[in-house]
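Researcher: Structure prediction, please.
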Amino acid sequence: MTNKKNITWHTSMITKKQRRDQNGHQSFILWFTGLSGSGKSTLANAVAKALFNRKIRNYVLDGDNIRFGLNKNLGFSEEDRKENIRRIGEVAKLFIDSGQVVLTAFISPFQEDRHQVRQLVEQNEFVEVYVKCPLAECEKRDPKRLYQKARKGEIKEFTGIDSPYEEPIKPELVIETDRYSVEECVVQVMTYLEKEQLI
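Model: Predicted structure follows.
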């Protein structure tokens, strides 16, 4: 644990507002949460492309990709999952400060953890997107064959099987990927962002 007596916070000479003004747009988190196979990464990347095409600076933090580097020392216990989300929240906050839109695609199964990330940033800087898809459909898709392994007992503490997923209580957006195409889902996200004057 870091001894906070020996560290000092250094304030940047460039403010978040100045970075936003230079970029010409707001900065915020688009937090995509949902079961494995629900379409979080697919949707996050499709929205990122739509933002990019409108010259809105953005970056996608993907659950799997992060575990190759920043969080490679974490497993999938409840404690490690909480730490995984805590770290992502802190990184996402830095992206906001840099004046960019950050899109995060993480199962993030626990309501408390998502709430803690929301508390890290200012009002209107956290947009929770519940990528809603029935478990049966996620299992049918099973792009990584994870549900199959979990059902066989080869993966323990797998969200939706032997570890809970707590649905968002009041997300800003609910996107039902079993009912709409990727393109239609992107339109729903972009329409919301325009309505809220975030883009």
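Model: DSSP finds eight helices and five strands in the chain.
Researcher: Thanks, that helps.
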